[in-house]
């Protein structure tokens, strides 16, 4: 695992047995067009870019909170290596889960939105951060999630009652699952419903971003398209779990949009949108 030293801003590589689990911070953010790559950051390039300034600001913020290291996806993964990218994506949920804290930087939420609690909630509801595929695991995996506005000021924590209530309403994730997520408790259909309205830049990532939530692994095959990637994801889930709610997708859709068209497996998370109340079952009778 590769981390940024928050004091020197240098990349440090750790073997599994030396990784400071429970101590490093992780940054969750929505990518812009001006992010700094691993190669650029290592060579000290593009220091005037928005992406580089974001890394510096993140290091300053978490260093003040006694985190000596931070993991940032843009600069800690060498995406030129398909093997490293595949390993990182398959390990990402665990990296977030074992972090000391996750800091979610909401670039589209301003300090002016913090005048009162109602304005904060409205700003959260309008944030694009909650629409992205990758941020779903970044919301659920860490033990602690702190939301920051564009000016790197704390908005609140996922554990705060008013924040949790708002996030639950925005995401459709129940309050218990929001702060006590466990792979095995929610049904497959329910977890899929949380991703139903989320989007990713690369189509395959709509499947790959869900690996951690279902505790499965997949090789990355960019170029295969979202349909094939999502089919592979469901096949791996079926191998690992006997929860038949995975077949409950599109239960409220006319036949030509459901099983009659695609078969047993869903074409994407979208048809699971209305499955948020379906519980796990192994006997073929999903409960709603």
UniProtKB/TrEMBL annotation:
<protein>
    <submittedName>
        <fullName>Uncharacterized protein</fullName>
    </submittedName>
</protein>
<dbReference type="Pfam" id="PF26640">
    <property type="entry name" value="DUF8212"/>
</dbReference>
<feature type="domain" description="DUF8212">
    <location>
        <begin position="228"/>
        <end position="250"/>
    </location>
</feature>
<dbReference type="InterPro" id="IPR010730">
    <property type="entry name" value="HET"/>
</dbReference>
<dbReference type="Pfam" id="PF06985">
    <property type="entry name" value="HET"/>
</dbReference>
<dbReference type="InterPro" id="IPR058525">
    <property type="entry name" value="DUF8212"/>
</dbReference>
<feature type="domain" description="Heterokaryon incompatibility">
    <location>
        <begin position="24"/>
        <end position="112"/>
    </location>
</feature>
């Amino acid at each position: 695992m590769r981390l940024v030293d928050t004091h020197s801003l240098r990349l440090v590589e750790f073997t599994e047995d030396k990784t400071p689990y429970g101590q490093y911070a992780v940054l969750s953010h929505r990518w812009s067009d001006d992010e700094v790559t691993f190669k650029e950051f290592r060579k000290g390039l593009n220091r005037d870019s928005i992406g580089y300034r974001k890394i510096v600001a993140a290091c300053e913020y978490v260093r003040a909170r006694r985190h000596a290291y931070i993991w940032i996806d843009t600069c800690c993964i060498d995406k030129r290596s398909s093997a490293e990218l595949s390993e990182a994506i398959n390990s990402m949920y665990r990296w977030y889960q074992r972090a000391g804290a996750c800091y979610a930087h909401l670039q589209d939420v301003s300090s002016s939105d913090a005048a009162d609690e109602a304005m904060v909630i409205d700003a959260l509801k309008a944030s694009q951060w909650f629409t992205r595929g990758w941020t779903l695991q970044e919301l659920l995996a860490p033990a602690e999630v702190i939301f920051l506005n564009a000016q790197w000021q704390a908005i609140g924590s996922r554990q705060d009652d008013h924040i949790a209530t708002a996030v639950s309403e925005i995401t459709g994730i129940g309050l218990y699952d929001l702060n006590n997520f466990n792979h095995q408790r929610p049904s497959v259909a329910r977890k899929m419903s949380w991703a139903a309205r989320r989007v990713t830049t690369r189509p395959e990532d709509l499947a790959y971003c869900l690996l951690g939530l279902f505790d499965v692994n997949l090789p990355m095959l960019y170029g295969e398209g979202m349909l094939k990637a999502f089919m592979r994801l469901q096949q791996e889930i079926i191998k690992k779990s006997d929860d038949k709610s995975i077949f409950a997708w599109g239960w409220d859709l006319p036949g030509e949009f459901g099983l009659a068209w695609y078969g047993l497996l869903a074409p994407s998370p979208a048809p699971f949108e209305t499955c948020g109340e379906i519980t796990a079952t192994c006997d073929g009778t999903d409960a709603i």
